[in-house]
Amino acid sequence: MNTLFHAADARGHARHGWLNARHSFSFAGYQDPTRMHFGVLRVLNDDVIAPAMGFGRHPHDNMEIITIPLRGAIEHKDSTGGHGIIHAGDVQVMSAGTGVQHSEANASRSEDLNLLQLWIFPARQGLEPRYDQMHFSRDERRGSIRTIISPDKLSTDTLWINQNAWLSLAHIEPDMTLDYTLHDPQNGLYCFVISGPVNISGTELSTRDALGLSEISTNDPIWLRLPEDADHTESEVLLIEVPMG
Description:
The chain has one helix and 22 strands. The chain has one helix at residues 138-141, and strands spanning 2-6, 12-15, 19-23, 41-49, 54-60, 64-71, 73-78, 83-87, 90-95, 100-106, 113-120, 130-135, 145-150, 159-160, 166-172, 178-180, 187-195, 198-200, 203-205, 210-214, 222-225, 235-243. The radius of gyration is 17 Å and the shape is globular.
């Protein structure tokens, strides 16, 4: 099994007054040829957006875009007439397909918004654009690995994207070990720590660290637990399973 460690403070950083952004992979003014993507995972941004501020109307095409608010709520409007607010606990998928224009802004006039946004290359291009969102309560995620996104169009339990990829939220508590099995043995797994600390298959990570695992064999178990000396009562990790080609 190949491992790739990305420390939280090694991410790209951009501050634009109203926006404080951290980039796990090359994005906008942050360019690092060694950190362009992990398989088909192209972007993982960790954004803090000031009250009532946001991104004006802008285009996307042929990209699966996933937005996960961690704190606060984001308001979006798009060229198809769609309009909604995504709260912490919600997850939104936008399949940009043939092209869509949208805007995103902090829905609050008094509180910061913190969100994760991921871009994943699609398996097929030129599909009709679409939006979808779903709420995943903290109680149903507690002490488990909860799949939130899959390739299954018919699932009523997850959102779906146009790619052979699965996203899950792992919520780890003391005295437990969570085991993860790849849905596709050819895929890799990018583990992003939302709140730490956590031990992933023998590697200890802290908040916002990440660990990429690839060329994973059946003899390479993937497990998550709190470190033995941790004084935290819980940790949360975003597990991103994607094709590596």
